[in-house]
């Protein structure tokens, strides 16, 4: 059996790191010890790893969901009657992208915007924590995206400088708009082998685009979406057939993002509010306080039972349970996981799974001792043989969490944000509980429990 001291030291360092990440913003430490007065503001640890090949800079934060922070939840239904079946998913994604950009412009912190398919219905769910002006947000979101092709004014020498950023002031309108753009897709520029974006115009747009390219040879052609420039590719040749390629040394993600932006104006999808829900921050805070109080009472009772019934085993299991809680919360802050009331419920449920693992292990150790095994042998066999039951139980729960989270957005599975929040916290909690139940508790017992 390996020496557990080094392992316990690593667990100790990991716990200190998790505590540092879990420290809330604005926490002050004030006390006086042996004549020295301590008055410091504690700040959470920040990940700052910068190398030639790796760059990780992350500030931990606790993201509160709509039901805790308060705000507005809007459910829109997209009218796909004028959109071909093959273009519906692309049109829905483009509409969602437009809504997300507008919500970010509105100044909403940590909005949650996702698509949902319910039968033949295509929906977009918008959750905006902290929003009080619901009507203003609805007016901003509900506008149809406006894609416009503009030209630089005559007094702007766009050919002499590639750093000129187009604006409404230094450009003017053309007859070409998003109505004439049939589609924008990611393609490959066969001259360079880099990702590019292809444009295809309608019959009317083909003639308009030909005239515009004739008038702007060697000049950038600004493309605006909702009065903001998204790209301004240079016109190299006259394009008479209405099929163009935007080059620019794009990465795959950049080309995909640009195509979605262009499609959000090329495929305007009417949307209609079918559900609106406002939650006050006071109601959310009261709910989370009651949830935390209930969780704390339940956790205290469980820890007391473990200590009374299993003695030193239970005490070490409680220590492992506290380590579990700190590590899990640190992961929530680093991810970051949006904490909702169902998410908190998933976390509390995973605590029960962690306790259940310890009970299975301890009862299995007792059985081995009753069979006359020596203490060290019984302890190792107890952990090893309890693993089968722990693995099966947690695997079944993880499969349930996978179904609820539905990462691939399958139509026959739920696609609701609250269910996904519950599934995410439950899955993370179970993963950490397996680590603490098998790894941490086992080494604590090896280190601190001595029996003949």
Automatic annotation (TrEMBL):
What the entry lists under SUPFAM superfamilies is as follows: Multidrug efflux transporter AcrB transmembrane domain
Record domain Protein translocase subunit SecDF P1: where: 94-153
Which residue windows are transmembrane per the record? 341-362, 422-445
Q: How does it sit in the membrane?
A: Multi-pass membrane protein
GO terms (molecular function) for this protein are:
protein-transporting ATPase activity
* InterPro entries tied to this protein: Acrflvin-R (IPR001036), SecD (IPR005791), SecD/SecF_arch_bac (IPR022813), SecD_1st (IPR048631), SecD_SecF_C (IPR048634), SecD_SecF_C_bact (IPR055344), SecDF_P1_head (IPR054384)
Q: Where is the Protein export membrane protein SecD/SecF C-terminal domain?
A: 271-449
GO terms classed as biological process: intracellular protein transmembrane transport; protein targeting; protein transport by the Sec complex
Tell me which GO cellular component terms the UniProt record holds: plasma membrane
Q: Where in the cell is it found?
A: Cell membrane
Q: Which UniProt keywords apply?
A: Cell membrane, Membrane, Protein transport, Translocation, Transmembrane, Transmembrane helix, Transport
| All copies of domain SecDF P1 head subdomain, residue ranges | 172-269
> What domain of life?
Bacteria
Q: Which Pfam families match?
A: SecD_1st, SecD_SecF_C, SecDF_P1_head
The similarity comment for this entry is: Belongs to the SecD/SecF family. SecD subfamily.
The protein's role, per its UniProt record: Part of the Sec protein translocase complex. Interacts with the SecYEG preprotein conducting channel. SecDF uses the proton motive force (PMF) to complete protein translocation after the ATP-dependent function of SecA.
Subunit composition and interactions: Forms a complex with SecF. Part of the essential Sec protein translocation apparatus which comprises SecA, SecYEG and auxiliary proteins SecDF. Other proteins may also be involved.
NCBIfam families in alphabetical order: 2A0604s01, secD
Q: Which HAMAP family match?
A: SecD_B (MF_01463_B)
This chain's protein is named: Protein translocase subunit SecD
Please name the gene that encodes this protein. Answer: secD
């Amino acid at each position: 059996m390996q020496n557990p001291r080094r392992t316990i030291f690593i667990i100790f360092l990991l716990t200190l790191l998790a505590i540092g990440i879990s420290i809330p913003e604005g926490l002050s430490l004030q006390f006086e010890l042996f004549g020295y007065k301590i008055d410091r503001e504690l700040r959470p640890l920040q990940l700052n790893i910068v190398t030639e090949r790796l760059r990780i800079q992350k500030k931990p934060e606790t993201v509160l969901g709509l039901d805790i922070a308060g705000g507005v939840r809007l459910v829109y239904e997209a009218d796909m009657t004028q959109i071909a079946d093959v273009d519906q998913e692309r049109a829905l994604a483009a509409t969602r992208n437009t809504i997300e950009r507008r919500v970010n412009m509105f100044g909403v912190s940590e909005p949650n915007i996702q698509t949902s398919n319910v039968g033949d219905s295509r929906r977009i769910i918008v959750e905006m924590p902290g929003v009080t002006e619901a009507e203003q947000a609805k007016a901003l979101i509900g506008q149809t995206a406006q894609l416009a092709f503009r030209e630089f004014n005559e007094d702007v020498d766009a050919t002499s400088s590639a750093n000129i950023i187009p604006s409404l002031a230094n450009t003017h309108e053309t007859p070409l708009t998003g109505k004439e753009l049939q589609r924008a897709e990611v393609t490959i520029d066969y001259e360079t082998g880099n990702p590019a974006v292809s444009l295809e115009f309608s019959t009317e747009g083909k003639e308009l685009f030909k005239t515009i390219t004739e008038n702007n040879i060697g000049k950038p052609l600004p493309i605006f979406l909702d009065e903001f420039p998204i790209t301004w590719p240079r016109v190299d040749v006259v394009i008479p057939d209405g099929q163009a390629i935007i080059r620019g040394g794009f990465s795959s993600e950049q080309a995909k993002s640009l195509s979605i932006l262009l499609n959000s104006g090329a495929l305007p999808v009417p949307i209609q509010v079918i559900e609106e829900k406002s939650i006050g921050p006071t109601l959310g805070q009261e709910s989370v306080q009651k949830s935390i109080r209930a969780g704390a009472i339940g956790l205290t009772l469980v820890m007391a039972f473990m200590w009374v019934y299993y003695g030193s085993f239970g005490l070490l299991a409680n220590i492992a349970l506290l380590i579990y809680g700190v590590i899990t919360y640190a992961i929530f802050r680093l991810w970051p996981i949006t904490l909702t009331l169902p998410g908190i419920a998933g976390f509390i449920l995973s605590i029960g799974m962690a306790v259940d693992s310890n009970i299975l292990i301890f009862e299995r150790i007792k059985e081995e001792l009753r069979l006359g095994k020596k203490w060290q042998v019984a302890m190792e066999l107890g952990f090893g043989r309890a693993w089968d039951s722990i693995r099966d139980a947690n695997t079944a729960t993880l499969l349930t969490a996978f179904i609820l989270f539905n990462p691939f957005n399958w139509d026959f599975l739920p696609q609701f944000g609250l269910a996904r929040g519950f599934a995410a916290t439950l899955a993370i909690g179970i993963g950490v509980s397996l680590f603490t139940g098998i790894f941490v508790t086992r080494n604590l017992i090896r280190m601190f429990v001595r029996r003949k």
